[in-house]
Write a structure and sequence with these properties.
globular; about 325 residues
Length: about 325
């Protein structure tokens, strides 16, 4: 168990030891700690060693020369120069916010980036600036296209956020697989089983063994619909931005043959583009749904983001629990 302030100091020190600037190290540390605080442990400390390994193998550039190209008042293209994904995404979402504040809409495409953690983390930054936001990013092969035997699409998350009438933002951040790949990786790392019906082994049989699942195929949500959504995200964040796509994104844990060249796409919008009373309308929308009759055992109908916000508030002033093998990684990295 360690408090957030102390943990931040350790992570910043580790990233600086690996060649990142102080500013970039702070950006990365904040994203990892946020993942721990919202309960997304698969995207937190469990990935720290992977990022450091990729820097050491020279497939993440710790001193990137990031190019920002203005296409119009609303549209920006970013070449991240193989930077760590947190840094590229931090620049990208801030630029998307700035563009939307100027013109009403911000569109930012990023190429030559890497894994950036939780999409919801960036969506929340836009929502706090009173903007509606979509975040897209692609990932290494994990899901087979509908009708195919071989995995090709990533678990390619879909993320949407909007301001609400309360301090709790509406943020839907979901992988298009039944569970995200990070949860399977974390289960493999700490020796836990995964639920039935989320993955097949390399022989095509349902498995609860996390290691066998990583060698096999993950199942998409809703059959061909989930596969179609994964394809859509691959087009938006890969094909459209100039990033890798069509199964070419490298696995960050196992493939050190070159940079990932992940693509990200951020879309931000002022909520009052069409109606001046958006805040009243979204308040009424949420209220109507929360008033619906509830099934047995449900006290409140929650909108996406409420649970995560409550976990964050609950964990903010608590010490962070670190599993033994991840604590050992931290100790080695900090040696």
């Amino acid at each position: 168990m360690v408090n957030g302030k102390k943990l931040n100091q350790i992570i910043v020190k580790i990233f600086k030891k690996n060649g990142l600037s102080t500013n970039h190290s702070i950006i990365c540390s904040k994203a990892l700690i946020n993942a721990e605080l919202v309960g997304a442990h698969s995207h937190g400390l469990a990935r720290l060693k992977m990022y450091c390994d990729r820097i050491q193998k020279k497939v993440i550039n710790p001193k990137p020369k990031i190019k920002i190209k203005k296409i119009s008042q609303s549209i920006t293209q970013i070449d991240a120069n193989n930077s760590i994904g947190f840094v590229a995404a931090d620049i990208g979402i801030k630029k998307a916010i700035k563009n939307a504040k100027k013109t009403g809409i911000g569109l930012v495409g990023i190429k030559n980036s890497g894994h950036y953690g939780l999409s919801g983390y960036y969506a929340e930054q836009a929502v706090k600036k009173n903007l509606i936001v979509f975040c897209f990013t692609n990932a290494p092969p994990a899901i087979a296209p509908h009708g195919a035997k071989k995995s090709l699409f990533g678990t390619n998350p879909i993320c949407f956020g909007t301001p609400t009438s309360s301090k709790i933002p509406f943020i839907l951040d979901t992988a298009v697989s039944v569970i995200n790949r990070g949860k399977i990786r974390l289960a493999a790392k700490i020796g836990k089983k995964i639920p039935k019906g989320v993955a097949l082994d390399k022989l095509g049989k349902d498995t609860t063994d996390a290691k066998k699942a990583l060698e096999g195929v993950q199942l998409p949500i809703a059959g061909f619909r989930g596969s179609g959504l994964a394809w859509m995200v691959d087009i938006l964040s890969g094909v459209m931005t100039g990033g890798n796509h069509g199964g070419k994104v490298k696995d960050p844990f196992d493939d050190f043959s070159g940079p990932q060249n992940i693509g990200h796409l951020f879309i931000t919008m002022k909520p009052n583009l069409f109606v001046g009373n958006y805040s009243e309308r979204i308040k009424e929308n949420i209220k109507r749904i929360k008033r619906l009759p509830k099934i047995k055992g449900v006290k409140e109908i929650l909108y996406p983001g409420q649970n995560k916000y409550q976990r964050y508030k609950k964990n903010l002033n608590k010490k962070i629990n670190i599993p033994k093998n991840i604590a050992e990684d931290l100790k080695k990295l900090n040696a």
